[in-house]
Amino acid sequence: MRIHHLNCGSLCPHGARLINGEGGLLARGTIVCHCLAIEAGDGLVLVDTGFGVEDARRPRQLGAAFRALMRPRPEVGTTALKQLEGLGFEASDVRHILTTHLDLDHSGGLPDFPAAEVHLFAPELEAALHPSLRDRARYVGAHWKHQPRWVEHGAGGEDWFGFESVRILPGIDAEVLLVPLLGHSRGHTAVAIRCGDGWLLHCGDAYFHHGEVSTPPSCPPMLRFFQNLIAADNVARKRNQERLRELAVAEGQAVGLLCSHDPHELKREQAKSGAAVAPA
Ligand SMILES: [Zn+2]
Fold first, then answer.
1. Would you place residue 21 in the very low, low, confident or very high pLDDT band (cuts 50, 70, 90)?
2. What is the Å distance from ligand 1's center to 81 Cα?
3. Considering only CA atoms, which of 149, 206, 163, 216 is closest in space to residue 183?
4. CB 3.0-4.6 Å disulfide test: which of 114, 162, 186, 264 passes with 127?
5. CA of 215 to the centre of ligand 1 (A)
C-alpha cells in the first residue's frame, strides 16, 4: 500500500516568525494543506482535499475576510485532481474521500471528485449544512453544491490506543479508522491508517505545529492565537491536543502523527515516502 503526501494549496499570511517560528516578522509565512492519497487495491482513498479547481478559478468564493487574513493561494496545478492526474490517475479512481472536517481549506476539492463517497463524522455535516452565525465564514456551500455522496459515521466504536475510533471501509485493501477529536470544529476527526506494523494518524487541525505534540510543547504565537479564536469547543480542543502529546510519548514508535498545516511535517513525510513520483 502506498501513501502519497500532497500539498493541495498553500496559505501565505504575513508574519513568518509568528507562524512558522522562523523567518522575518514581515515575511510571509507558509501554511500547507497536507492531504493524503492512499493507493488501496483498485482505487484511491483521499484524506482531505485542500483547495479545488473552482477555488483557483473563483477565489472570491473563499470569502473576503479569509482571503485578507490568511492569503490563500489556490492554484489549479496544486489541486488534488491535477496532482493525481500527474501521477497517472483519473478522478474516477478516487472511490472514497475522508474529511477530517469541512472547513473551506479542507473541502475545496470535493467537487473535483463527484463520484466519490465522502466519509465524515456526523456532527460535522450537521454543522456545515446548518452553520451557526459564528460558523458561517468557515464553511463554503459551493464546495457541496454538487451534492456529494455523504456517508456519515457516528460515535461508538472500538478502542484505539485509548481513543474512541470508528472502523470504516471494511471492503478495501487498507485498514482505516476515524478517530474523533472534537474541538477545532463541531465534528472534527482524525484519520488513522495502518502502515505495516504501525499507524499513521492524520490529525487534521487538532494541532497546527509539530511543537504542539512534542514534550515540552511549543507553538508560534500567531498559530496559538488563531486556534483559540476559531475553536468550536476550546476546552475539548486543548484536552485532545494533550492526549495526542501523551500518545506521541507513549506510542511514538507505533504511531506517526501529522497535521494538516505544518510544512515541516509535510517535508518530513514526503522525504520518508520517497516523494510523489509518478508510477512507471
Ligand atoms: Zn485547516
1. confident
2. 19
3. 206
4. 186
5. 23
What residues contact 186, with CB distance under 8 A and at least 6 apart? 123, 124, 126, 127, 135, 232, 233
Q: Angle 38-42-45 (CA atoms, 0-180°, nearest 5)?
A: 25
Span 145-168, mean pLDDT? Answer: 93
pTM above 0.85, yes or no: yes
User: Ligand 1: distance of its center to the CA of 228 in Å?
Assistant: 13
Report the largest interatomic distance among the alpha carbons of the chain, rounded to a whole angstrom.
50
Residues 8, 198: Cα–Cα separation, whole Å: 26
CB 250 within 8 A of CB 196: no
Dihedral of alpha carbons 185, 98, 144, 205, sign? positive
pLDDT bin (cut points 50, 70, 90) of residue 84 is very high
Positive or negative, the CA dihedral 16, 258, 250, 196 is: negative
106 CA → ligand 1 middle, Å: 6
**Range with lowest mean pLDDT among 30-39, 46-55, 149-158, 187-196:** 149-158
Q: How far is the CA of 34 from the centre of ligand 1 (A)?
A: 9
Ligand 1 center from residue 60 Cα (angstroms): 18
pLDDT value at 258 more than 90: yes
User: Is the preceding peptide bond at 111 cis, omega within 30 degrees of 0?
Assistant: no
